[in-house]
Amino acid sequence: MTARTPRLSRLRRLTPGRGEDGAGRSGRRRGATPKVVALGGGQGLSASLAALRRITGDLTAVVTVADDGGSSGRLREELDVLPPGDLRKALAALCGDDDWGQTWARVIQHRFQSEGDLHGHAVGNLLIVALWEQLGDPVQALDLVGRLLGAHGRVLPMSAVPLELQALVRGHDPARPEDVDTVRGQATVALTPGEVLSVQVVPSAPPAVPEAVAAVLDADWVVLGPGSWFSSVIPHLLVPELLDALMETKARRVLSLNLAPQPGETEGFSPQRHLEVLARHAPKLALDVVLADEAAVPDRESLADAAKRFGAAVELAPVARQDGSPKHDPELLAAAYDRIFRMHGRIGPWR
Known about the structure:
Elements: H1 5-14, E1 35-40, H2 42-52, E2 58-63, H3 70-79, H4 85-93, H5 99-109, H6 123-135, H7 138-149, E3 154-157, E4 164-170, E5 180-184, H8 186-190, E6 195-202, H9 210-218, E7 221-224, H10 229-233, H11 240-248, E8 252-256, H12 271-281, E9 289-293, H13 300-308, E10 313-317, H14 330-344
Parallel strand pairs: 1-2, 1-7, 2-3, 7-8, 8-9, 9-10
Antiparallel strand pairs: 4-5, 4-6
């Protein structure tokens, strides 16, 4: 047990739904939806959220804050703020399918095209940063944006400070294929031509957002992935209080694997190798289920063996779009999550 455990215990006692009024896990009424927390960033988290909002009314996204490219990187450098891009994408994914939700999703995702300083900036990034400056509280500002959009869930940053991603990469310089270099910056790590060996964040041991920790502790299910493995998924495990919460929560934990290796970052990775590098960064983390697309797993036995090291079962399901692109289909992914929650849950069906 770590030195941070007492703080986590205090947060658990303060988390809504765990009091003596019967509203907690043991007293959940039949028909209530599960409390789900999804961790990640970028397009992978957006795919997961677009699926999860279809099957639960109690959804929280915990988003990485290490992005340093594009509009987010420019705003981060100029204004010394959290990078808003992945937070914006998560909010857009939580927008409803009605006219209001889809209109606002398009608006906040819209990027200006010009010859001036606004070129490439996303409207949602500017809106989020403006509210951060107005309110002085990143969580309160994101909650306000969520209400404006009618978002079907809550979006939280994983840390209260912007993080720099650093990676040890073999062969980052193609002229020196056997040398191991330290590569800095999420955008650079994501596109490296070399082999990523490990990642860390700067500052080390960054503070977690308390609301994110509380959400993990109070969840019925925690979903990690899919997404860029080293720059969106693993960074959550490098925030000590968040990792402690993931290990101590009574929630069940599902890891959602990518449909294909990511060029640069995980080039040539098998599904089981994704699990192996995850274990190197968080050797004490336990999982309950590993979800993978059935067509993306050439060696099911090796994946099952890798999952067993986490104490997890493997669930294979068709979750990819039918157009052949390496993207998740929201409806198919929702069906897979729904089945997992029903088959592996501790408290029976919610609907």
